[in-house]
Structures are given as C-alpha cells and as structure tokens.
Write a structure and sequence with these properties.
4-stranded antiparallel β-sheet, 3-stranded antiparallel β-sheet, 11 strands, about 25% strand, N2O_reductase_NosL, single chain, globular, NosL protein, about 180 residues, about 25% helix
Length: about 180
C-alpha cells in the first residue's frame, strides 16, 4: 500500500481541515440575573439597584469567583470595567446592556430623584453593537446618572427629548463620556 497522497487528496484533506478549524464560534448569549449577584466592578448587589445593568464575555478571561459572564449593576460599571480590562489586554467577545426598547421601562421618583426600573431577564439584554445610549439624562441608576441603552434609535431620541441628554451609539461611547456620568 502506497502511503503517499496524491496532490488532489492532499488538497482535499487540507480544505477539510481548514473548514473544520474555521467553524464559526457562537457568540455567548446573555443570562438572566437573579438579583443576588454582586457587580464585578464595584461590588454592589445588582438586584438592589435601579436602572440598566450589563454583562460582558471576554475571549480568554473570566470574572473572579464565578462562571462568565462578568456582571454589572449599571451600564456605567459595565463600561468602566471594560475600559480598565482592555488596558490589561482583555478582549471582550460581547457586551450586553439592558435594552429599554424591549422592556416596559418606567421612570419613577424617590426622594426627588428620577429612577429607572431595572430588568434582569436575559430577554431584556441587547449587544452594545445594537444599541444607542442616552448620556446625560436626568434619571439615575446604580452609579448616579444612568447611561440608558435602547435597541431602537427613535426610542433613545424620544427618551432624550423627555429626560434630557444626548444619544450616542453604544460602540462610540468614550471613556470621557462614561467618567462624566
């Protein structure tokens, strides 16, 4: 039996190997938070805070003390953590934020402060590549002024018209804009 491969057999085997190695990896899905988790950035209990929350999966890194995703009590903590870990070489696979276009988000008032409802179910999240964020609105979340994400740009515009602020694509949020919140 001849152990050599013909050129055609070699090319076919190489192509199959490349195809097997190039199968697309699935983007991890958001998970439902039960509310008892602590924020991986500031340590606050997520379910005790108001406003948008977030989750991030990283390529080669995981949060300390639990399985991915990294969990956050606010969109502000989500971005602050991402900016800090990116400086340490962590690469985000996907970041999810509460999508206020997909939930019945309400603004209530407590002691004169406008607070936005929180939503912890996986179906309430959208990837940052798909949301527009209202920055500088007069509503607060866990870390003070909230960054409020919307899957529909028109919803973000309407929210900004009612509650102040500016709309920015979530992927364009700068460190400076986040630090002002």
């Amino acid at each position: 039996m001849d152990a050599t491969l013909s050129r055609r057999e070699l090319l076919g085997a190489t192509a199959l190997g490349l195809l097997a190695g190039c199968q697309s990896q699935t983007t991890p899905e958001p998970v439902t938070l039960d509310g008892t988790e602590s924020c991986d950035h500031c340590g606050m209990v997520i379910g005790q805070q108001s406003g948008p929350v977030g989750e991030t999966y990283y390529e080669d890194n995981s949060p300390a003390g639990h399985d991915p995703p990294t969990r956050f009590c606010s969109a502000v903590c989500t971005y602050r953590h991402r900016f800090q870990t990116e400086q340490r070489g962590w690469t985000p696979t996907v970041t999810y934020l509460t999508d206020y276009s997909s939930v019945d988000g309400e603004v209530g008032e407590t002691d004169g402060t406008a607070l936005l409802t929180r939503h912890l179910d996986a179906s309430a999240f959208a990837p940052t590549t798909d949301v527009t964020v209202v920055v500088g609105a007069d509503v607060e979340g866990a870390m003070g002024p909230a960054l409020v994400p919307f899957g529909e740009a028109d919803d973000a515009t309407a929210f900004a018209e009612e509650h102040g602020g500016q709309t920015v694509a979530a992927t364009d949020l700068s460190r400076e804009a986040v630090e002002q919140e």
